[in-house]
Write the structure tokens for this entry.
Amino acid sequence: MIAAFSIAPASPDDTGSYAAAVAEAVGIVRASGLPHETNAMFTNLEGEWDEVFGVLKQCVDAMTARHPRVSLVVKCDIRPGHTGMLTSKVERVDEILGDA
């Protein structure tokens, strides 16, 4: 499965930024060892159901330890028996566009 998720506290820090809180969650994702990528809006994470949602729970637990309210948005592509989809889906589109 691939999960695209966004997590942030309900309000920014004193400078108007969410970066420090988001960085903590991204650090948890990176430490998980699962395939992942982070962009300006979401972090994509690939693995088995329990692995992926275990990491999401760790992110939520870390953020709620410091913030009274947290927003979590998750979108999943569930395709049993397939791995490496984080990169292969993009590669297929690039091939069609001639960017490969």
About this structure: The longest helix spans residues 49-64. The chain has one domain: 2-97.
